[in-house]
């Protein structure tokens, strides 16, 4: 793997988000280096993991994964899963997912990056994608939370023409 792209992108991400009240750490998961961002305040997400996949022909996959906090209980996963399937039909990037065994709710998206681009350009593309992904994840988290707290009914949401709108 071309670690130069990963190192320069991670360095820029760390510098930018550290100034935004985010704690940055690194983990090795499944032989991949993962940049982990955690909020120092009360954010809507638990953490955000960034990975860079293998660079082939000058192209690398950049993956963004938000772990979302919703307060899922044993009775919620099936209706939340139905809602996520419905919401995913309307997304232009990324998808929501749920690991039912432990109530883990997430939003992830990936994009292909030019691994030979200047660091400034790579960071610009990352920030645009991160902004769209974070807005989508936050809106999805609010929608799921409203269902869990009984403020909205899944069947009503699915019968309305409601979707999460992503802006480019």
Describe the structure.
With about 170 residues, the chain is of the alpha+beta class. It is about 40% helix and about 30% strand. Strand 1 (about 20-30) and strand 2 form a beta hairpin. Helix 1 (about 5-20) packs across helix 3 and helix 2 (about 75-90) packs across helix 3 (about 120-150).
| Whole-number tally of structural domains | 1
Got a strand count? 6
Strand content: 25-35%
Helix content: 25-40%
The poorly predicted ranges are none
What's the shape? elongated
Distance between the amino and carboxyl termini: 30 Å
Give the topology string: H per helix, E per strand.
HEEEEHEEHH
Q: Averaged pLDDT, please?
A: 84
User: What's the CATH topology name?
Assistant: Yope Regulator, Chain: A
Indicate the CATH class: Alpha Beta
The number of helices is 4
Going across the major beta sheet, what is the strand order? 1-2-3-4-6-5
Computed Rg: 17 Å
Major β-sheet annotation = 6 strands, antiparallel
Quickly give the CATH architecture.
2-Layer Sandwich
- What structural class should be given to the helix and strand makeup? alpha+beta
Summed up, what is this model?
The longest helix is centred in the last third of the chain and has 30 residues, at 119-148. Strand 2 (32-39) and strand 3 (45-52) form a beta hairpin. The protein has four helices and six strands; from the N terminus they run αββββαββαα.
Secondary-structure map:
Elements (H helix, E strand, L loop, with lengths): L2 H16 L3 E8 L2 E8 L5 E8 L6 E10 L8 H12 L6 E5 L4 E11 L4 H30 L5 H6 L9
Antiparallel strand pairs: 1-2, 2-3, 3-4, 4-6, 5-6
Helix pairs in contact: 1-3, 2-3
């Amino acid at each position: 793997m071309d670690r130069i792209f990963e190192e320069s992108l991670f360095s820029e991400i760390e510098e930018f988000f550290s100034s935004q009240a985010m704690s940055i750490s690194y983990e090795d998961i499944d032989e991949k280096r993962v940049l982990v961002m955690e909020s120092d305040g009360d954010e809507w997400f638990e953490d955000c993991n960034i990975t860079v996949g293998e660079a082939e022909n000058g192209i690398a996959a950049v993956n963004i994964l938000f772990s979302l906090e919703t307060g899922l209980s044993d009775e919620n996963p099936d209706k939340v899963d139905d809602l996520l399937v419905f919401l995913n039909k309307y997304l232009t990037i990324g998808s929501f997912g749920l690991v039912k065994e432990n109530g883990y709710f997430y939003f992830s998206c990936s994009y292909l990056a030019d691994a030979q681009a200047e660091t400034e350009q790579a960071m610009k593309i990352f920030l645009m994608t991160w902004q769209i992904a974070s807005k989508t994840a936050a809106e999805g988290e609010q929608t799921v939370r409203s269902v869990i707290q009984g403020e909205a009914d899944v069947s009503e949401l699915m019968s309305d023409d409601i979707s999460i709108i992503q802006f480019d």
